[in-house]
């Protein structure tokens, strides 16, 4: 599974892209857990004090934002999927 990190997430993690070998059916939550094991510096940026994923963390699966998918964070993934992690963007 290909993972792409953007903007400040890329800077914090020190990498722009990585491959994760996870079994088919792993959920988005499972991917986040695995990524935070590998990239612990992202934890405070992605999770709140209760361990919940912060609302400002935008994740796209093959170009679709997870909030638009029926299973959301519980969406089962396939090894060929591409996940994009995008931080909030501000400006005017």
List keywords for this structure.
single chain; 92 residues; alpha+beta; 5-stranded mixed beta sheet; 5 strands
Fold and architecture overview:
The chain has 92 residues and is of the alpha+beta class. The protein is built from three helices and five strands. It has helices at 7-13, 28-38, 43-46, and strands spanning 2-5, 17-19, 58-61, 64-65, 82-86. A five-stranded mixed β-sheet has the order 2-1-5-3-4. Strand 3 (58-61) and strand 4 form a beta hairpin. The protein is globular, with a radius of gyration of 12 Å. The mean pLDDT is 92.
Which percent bin holds the helix content? 10-25%
Calculate the terminal CA-CA distance, rounded to whole Å: 34 Å
The string of secondary-structure elements, in order, is EHEHHEEE
Query: Assembly state here?
Result: single chain
Largest sheet: 5 strands, mixed
Number of helices: 3
* Alpha carbon gyration radius: 12 Å
Kindly report the spatial arrangement of strands forming the biggest sheet. Answer: 2-1-5-3-4
- Percent of sequence in beta strands: 15-25%
Question: Can you tell me the overall shape?
Answer: globular
Question: Which stretches of 5+ consecutive residues score pLDDT under 50?
Answer: none
The helix/strand class is alpha+beta
Q: What is the β-strand count?
A: 5
Q: What's the overall average pLDDT, rounded? A: 92
